[in-house]
């Protein structure tokens, strides 16, 4: 029931029109069902100076209190700081889709006199997650791989309004080859709209100048207009200027919103006119979560894995390769066999040549012997002829012959008749 239509000019694919329902249009639904059943794993890391609102933003982002709410402290007491890398996991569900979310909180840096190596434990943490994934991949049974790799790293930038600090550049340069970097301007409510716009420009210029690779929204070609506009809108907001809050406040017009209340008004987290929080969440969760996971797996992890294996001296060993590749083994056997045949042929040729040479020299020798015999006989005959000539002359001149000579002469006379 396949009716061929005009072949596609772009490629050699012949498009066929179906006359009946086959059912593969249901494939996306199958994938969807399976993914929903399996659930998703996503790990997000937050990096930035202490007190920039990391915990607050993560709570805001996933609409849940991943971090236990901080107890109100007496004004004199010091706020507890994150002193070690902490990982908090939560299973969250939305419309039946399960997401196992892990947030990796890193201790705020910049608090020490010497901040030179503060990036080290963070990079080590990212790498140890790659290590654990590689180890799981190499297990005999690898059906249940837990993906704890960091899929996105929210890098919090202090809202100074100037440009990136040296320490930010250092951090980003250390991180950008190992993780999807998403720069964020923290506590954007402390800057005016104009300051935010200027600051964004300066940050982007700094990032470009130092060749730092931040996560880029993929360019969707041939997609519907809505998707393309969404991608463009997200890209235009990077670095996202965000405001975090996990408390509900009342707006002057009587609405209840997540936001921060100030004497002069309310900053609404979910209001796109107030900050880029909505766009950040859209990028991270709604639009590019799969893209972030894919990029982590296909590029960042793959790159790291190759380098790791090479540094361990695991090259593409040809002997190992042959063992698992019968075609390569057959090829090698064929080459060996051909070499053996060629050797045998060369040996036979040599023996043949030797024999020919021997025969030739023997022939030459007998030829020479024959020639010598022939010469000998010729010489003897020549001598005999000379004697006979001599006798003839004597007979003709009337000189008597010796008895021996007479007999010869008789013979000669007999011969003459
Ligand atoms: P550590 O736990 O030390 O790593 O700090 P953190 O970066 O997690 O910051 P945290 O979320 O604890 O917030 C620090 C303070 O900043 C709190 O008093 C928050 O209420 C406040 N804060 C959080 N987000 C914002 C924001 O967007 N704007 C403003 N103005 N304050 C914020």
Notes on the structure:
This protein has helices at about 25-40, 55-60, 120-135, 165-175, 195-210, 225-235, 275-285, 290-310, 320-325, 325-395, 405-415; strands spanning about 1-5, 15-20, 40-50, 85-95, 95-105, 150-155, 180-185, 240, 250, 255-260, 265-270. The protein is an alpha/beta fold and about 425 residues long. It folds into two domains: about 1-315, Rossmann fold (3-Layer(aba) Sandwich); about 325-415. The strands form three sheets. A six-stranded mixed sheet has the order 4-5-3-6-7-8, sandwiched between helices. Strands 9-10-11 form a three-stranded antiparallel sheet, with no helix packed on it. A hairpin with a 2-residue loop joins β4 (about 85-95) and β5 (about 95-105). α6 (about 225-235) crosses α7 (about 275-285). The longest helix is centred in the C-terminal third of the chain and has 71 residues, at about 325-395. It starts with a strand and ends with a helix. Residues about 75-80 and about 410-415 have low confidence and may be disordered. It binds guanosine-5'-triphosphate. Guanosine-5'-triphosphate (GTP) binds near residues 56 and 81.
Key traits:
alpha/beta; Rossmann fold; 11 helices; single chain; 2 domains; binds guanosine-5'-triphosphate; 14% strand; disordered C terminus; 6-stranded mixed β-sheet; 3-stranded antiparallel β-sheet; elongated; 417 residues
What is the fold's blueprint, element by element?
Blueprint: E1 2-4, E2 16-18, H1 27-38, E3 40-48, H2 54-61, E4 86-94, E5 97-105, H3 120-137, E6 152-157, H4 166-175, E7 181-185, H5 193-209, H6 225-237, E8 240-241, E9 248-250, E10 256-262, E11 265-268, H7 277-287, H8 289-311, H9 318-324, H10 326-396, H11 403-416
Parallel strand pairs: 3-5, 3-6, 6-7, 7-8
Antiparallel strand pairs: 1-2, 4-5, 9-10, 10-11
Helix pairs in contact: 6-7, 7-8, 9-10
This protein binds guanosine-5'-triphosphate.
